[in-house]
Input
Amino acid sequence: MGLLHHANYFTFFEMGRTEMLRAAGGNYRLMEEAGLLFVVTKAECRYHQPARYDDELIIRTTIKRITAAKIEHEYHVLRDGQLLATGNVTLAMVDRDGQVQRIPDDFMLDP
Output
């Protein structure tokens, strides 16, 4: 069909939040080595216009809300300034046993 598969947007969202954390000086690998994990508890995407294969896309990632154990991200997927999709993902911090943990202060980015 020449269109980007709908599930790929969630991969773009993950890339967006990983790069946002990296730009703020954070590192998922080090966090996981310390035994802390972010797990997705909610993910949604609203599709406005289709993306096509080989389109150059911009993923704008922002923090919508932070609590002691959760971070909510918001995403805007754009092509040449045209809004293609919006999304929201909620992450919770857990330890390796799946127990909810407080997000360390160095991960508390300003929303």
Notes: The longest strand covers residues 82-95. DSSP finds two helices and four strands in the chain. The helical segments are 8-23, 28-33.
